[in-house]
Design brief:
There is one protein chain. By secondary structure, this protein is of the alpha/beta class. Strands 7-8-9-6-5-4-3-2-1-10-11-12 form a 12-stranded mixed sheet. Helix 1 links the parallel strand 1 and strand 2. The chain starts with about 40 loop residues before the first strand and ends with a helix. The structure holds S-adenosylmethionine. The site of S-adenosylmethionine (SAM) has 20 residues, from strand 3, strand 5 and helix 11. S-adenosylmethionine binds next to strand 3, strand 5 and helix 11.
Amino acid sequence: MGETVIPLADLRYAAPVPIIPAVLTAPTGLIADQLGRPLRDLRISVTDRCNFRCSYCMPKEVFDRDYVFLPHSSLLSFEEISRLARIFVAHGVQKIRLTGGEPLLRKGLEALVAMLAELRTPDGTPLDLTLTTNGSVLARKARALADAGLKRVTVSLDALDDSIFRRMNDVDFPVADVLQGIAAAQAAGLGPIKVNMVVKRGTNDHEIVAMARHFRHSGIVLRFIEYMDVGASNGWRMDEVLPSAQVLGRLREHWPLESLDPTVVGETAERWRYSDGAGEIGLISSVTQAFCRDCNRARLSTEGKLFMCLFATSGHDLRSLLRQGRSDAEISAALGLVWAGRSDRYSELRAAQPAQPLDSSTGQRRVEMHYIGG
Ligand code: SAM
């Protein structure tokens, strides 16, 4: 019988404990990295588990019954997450997105939302507090999340055609239940709602126009995401990427579209509006048009490792600082030092050699999206 080698959960990705500087300078809210980029956006993965097995993210062959997810003791508690979030906000973070895995699988998530909703930026403004979900249990949870202080949600939905959707999520989950979740989020006031569609050439690209038609006039912003080479297990191939320019071309065969200015610096999606007033769409072109230049995002994994880039191969172990009993001032100074040293711009570098993921030559394992958070 063949043996399966399972990596120990805590050793999955390299993550040295950050250095605490000798002089603890207080956060100014104005830190900048090596490329002059501020820290504005924090994505927090609250679980590495998901009830879907989308082949581009958590393919069934890898994430099967034998796969070892993180034990509960490894996860940051809600108190640990909100303590770190407060430190990040003091450094300039204005937006927090809860993600995963499937964030709504984390028990009692509303309690964490309520804690984060109390945070204020240095000038007293509440955070832009949002969550990305596959929508599978949103119909049941939308009201409680809104009551806890969540502002809005982004729902992932890759097709309207039920058989294509069931095949893509690979757990036979029906599209109708996700649409119900979106309706519940609208009713609870969790807007403006965004819907993310990952476009995979040959799999769901023929659903682009049907999706656009469905969400026109709904107030919901449909965003088309280029299939990315995240992680190491989805078997990514460049020929399965449908460039956003071609998505736009297909939409323009049906409706005139005009480009819109970004609403904030560092926005991932390029915005377009239907000229007939039917609403807005977004194009996220991380493969064909890298947007590292303005990237102001940090990612906190389920077990408290900080990653500077979606395509990183190693992180920074903040959980050890928390569990060693370090003070807020020490953790804050360590975080300031880590951000100041940041120079990641993977997608720009990959654009120079698009046929291969960059780390194939170094043998380093890139962090998986369900672990780091999308
Ligand atoms: N479970 C939640 C969900 O489904 O939205 C949150 C986590 S999921 C990793 C976040 C987002 O990443 C989803 O919109 C998903 O479609 C997207 N995603 C995952 N793998 C991707 C890939 N290889 N390329 C592009 N987007 C991807």
